[in-house]
Amino acid sequence: MIYQRSSQLFIEAEKVIPGGVNSPVRAFKGVGGTPIFAKSAKGAYVYDEDDNRYIDYINSWGPMILGHAYQPVVDAVIERAKNGTSFGMPTELETKIAALAISMVPNIDKIRFVNSGTEACMSAIRLARGFTKRDKIIKFAGCYHGHSDSFLIQAGSGASTFGIPNSPGVTQGTAKDTLLAHYNDLESVKALFEANKNEIAAIIIEPVAGNMGCIPPKDGFLQSLRQLCDEYNSLLIFDEVMTGFRLAKGGVQELYNVNADIVCFGKVIGGGLPVGAFAARNEIMNYLAPIGPVYQAGTLSGNPLAMAAGLAMLEALNTDDEVFERLDAKTAYLENGIREALQKHQVIFTINRVGSMISVHFDANPVVDFQTAKNGDNETFKKFFHGLLKEGVYIAPSAYETWFITDALSFEDLDYTINAVGKVAKSL
Ligand SMILES: *Cc1c(COP(=O)(O)O)cnc(C)c1O
User: From CA 311, how far away is CA 270, in angstroms rounded?
Assistant: First the structure.
């Protein structure tokens, strides 16, 4: 493959944008080399500025669950744009997408739309703190909840790739209110509750973790967190920015049959436009301004283009009864194929998967939390990444990311990918 134009564009970008990118992990620092500049995408494929084609396993980091340039979303955005792109006034569209989201997700009465997953999680903990009148939150090492101050404490993916567990600029005052537990380790959570009685507003968790690779919750782990929160009068926040509208219509609450108090959304809910949202039952959501005391706002929140895209996406997912089964079947097929290909060449690895989230870790031991995720051999991952890229298969440029599977992938695409993994495995 020739990356001439991408390389040139990166040099130009670096002069005017820090690191040449608007989100750090795009810069390929975790894998070496320079980033590929996207020119267009359709279905399962993305095309770069040198006209190379890749089977895309990033899919804008999740949103394109039905493939790139999905026609109903494209049409909805174009139609809306003709009638004005932003008003700063309420629109009917916002009520429509809110009602649809609430009908799909269990246990929520109201939803508020924001512009990113970061904003959703940031607002969710403010709401939880306001509602409980407590300051502290528990987060899990390796979970990512966006880049707001409270969460940049052992934050997985981007932050881990760059080894900035605590970013400069996050004050000690803020950091002290974020208590750190270990994923799948209930005792670590209990200990924090014991040591901070009546001080913990909420636990926030990726109920299936996706920012340290894909890490499923152990049997009963989420249920035990639910019980602990009930016992200590704290709220349970599910950050479903990645899992929401991906693992099931109703997300992880539905999949594992456990209720959260506040649920955060992003990625799929915007159909590829900048959207986040948080939702809860009335009692909690009515604590928000303008009817409650907790302030939260946004000039472009509920933006009509974004809402049109999100609505078209959710309608498509809601009316297709088999979409999540298909995604699961395709990802299972990929998992089996990769497993066989890597085994054949005696590569040491572990694969984790839940539905259409999957990650390959180059370590023999089970990957169940941030510590075990960090044991993966990053040098092998780098070779794996660049090898696949040369074969026209684009996975996330970091060992701490899941692959995002799209329904636009055909079984031919999956076979091509498995074959490429086999070729690359020889040289690992
Ligand atoms: C991507 C992600 C976020 C942040 O969303 P942005 O839209 O990038 O701000 C938060 N939580 C989880 C679980 C995510 O995967």
Answer: 8
Q: Under a CB-based contact definition with an 8 Å cutoff, are residues 142 and 183 in contact?
A: yes
| Alpha-carbon gap, residue 275 to 266, rounded angstroms | 6
Ligand 1 centre and the CA of 352: distance in Å?
20
- For position 167, what pLDDT does the model report? 78
Residue nearest to atom 5 of ligand 1 (CA): 117
Please give the distance, rounded to the nearest whole angstrom, from the Cα atom of residue 146 to the centre of ligand 1: 5
Are 174 and 208 in contact by the 8 Å Cβ rule? The answer is no
Mean residue pLDDT of the chain comes to 95
pTM of the predicted structure, to 2 decimals: 0.97
Chain-centre distance of CA 337, in angstroms?
A: 24
Q: Is the CB of 118 under 6 A from ligand 1?
A: yes
- R_g over Cα of the chain: 21
**Does ligand 1 come within 6 angstroms of the Cβ of 401?**
no
Closest ligand 1 atom to Cα of 267: 7
For residue 267, indicate whether it is catalytic.
Answer: yes
Provide the token pair at 181: 């537990």
**272 vs 65: CA distance, rounded Å:** 9
290 Cβ contact partners less than 8 Å away, ≥ 6 residues apart: none
How many Å apart are CA 336 and CA 338, to the nearest integer?
A: 6
Contact status, residue 77 vs residue 285, Cβ threshold 8 Å:
no
Question: Quick one: pLDDT at residue 369?
Answer: 97
Give me the mean pLDDT over the 335-362 stretch: 98
- The CA-atom distances, in angstroms, between 176 and each of 53, 123, 151, 166, 180 are 47, 19, 11, 12, 10
* Cβ-Cβ contacts under 8 Å for 70 (sequence gap 6 or more): 64, 271, 272, 312, 313, 316, 408
Q: 116 CB less than 6 Å from ligand 1?
A: yes
How far apart CA 311 and CA 272 sit, in angstroms, is: 11
Q: Which of the following is catalytic: 48, 56, 177, 239?
A: 239
pLDDT the model gives residue 158:
58
